[in-house]
Each structure stands twice: as structure tokens, then as C-alpha cells.
Amino acid sequence: MEYVCELKDRPETPTICIRTRTGVENLANVVGPAFGALGGYLAQSGAQPVGAPYIAYFNMDMQDLELEIGFPLAAPVAGQGVFEPGRLPAGQYAVTLHRGPYTNLGDAYEALNGFLGALERQPTGVVYEVYHNAPDEVAPEELLTEIQFPLAPET
Questions:
Q1: CA-based end-to-end distance of the chain
Q2: What does the alpha-carbon distance between residue 26 and residue 24 come to, in Å, rounded to a whole number?
Q3: Is 56 helix (H, G, I), strand (E, B) or coil?
Q4: Edge-to-edge strand list for the sheet holding 6-10
């Protein structure tokens, strides 16, 4: 797949999320139930999502991934129990859209890393995957996942 990589400025956006840790082999068992629970909390709280659900990866230790699973919101909402208020930080992001199975997302990561290398820009180390559809909605080859690397300020 050919990737179009670009820079986008993003405003700060409130979120509701679940923070957790898991190994990559257990990711599917964690993510699906978390999105389901968040959907229930959104309905109960009356919060309004303003975009697609996401996962933030705070590290790339495949045995112990630190995750934030959440939804961007129109306005902040109070947390309760495992549901935490959060935010997507404002700033410049390098982004690309991947079409296809999640198992091929590494290609999108490589494209973004090459793009940033050519620009001589540094990511912050956090990675966002934004899911524009889901495996229960479309065939694997039609999945749309936006990869976002927040960028460190230019020096």
C-alpha cells in the first residue's frame, strides 16, 4: 500500500478513557471489552463523542504495552471507576491512513518514520491509532486506521 503522510495541527480535545497494560498477545481480549464498556459509559453519562475511538500507546514493549483506550469528546466529562477523563494534546502530528488488516499496520509506522526522518522531526514517543471502522463492520482489507505521531516542538 502507498501511504500519504502529512503534518496536521490538532487542538486539545477532551476524552474519556480506560488506562491499562497488556501484552500484545492479549490486546484483542482487552481492547474489545474496553470499547464496549466505554460505549456504555458514554450512553449513561450523556457525553458526546466527536470522532472515532482510539488507542494511545505510551511504549512499544510488546510484553507490557501501556495503553489508553478512549473516545474524543465534545466537552469534558467526569470519570468514574475505571473511566478516566483525559485529553488528546494539542500540537502538530504526523499522520497517515492505513487501509487493511491490523496485522499490516507496521507498514504505516514505517512510512511515518521515513517521513519524519526526511523532515528531521522527532515524535514524542506516544502513538495514536484511530479506528474509523471495526472488524465487525467491514472485511479486514477494508479496515481504516489512522496512525498519528504527536511531534516534539521544533528547536
A1: 33
A2: 5
A3: strand
A4: 6-10, 91-99, 144-150, 127-131, 54-57, 65-72, 13-22, 84-88
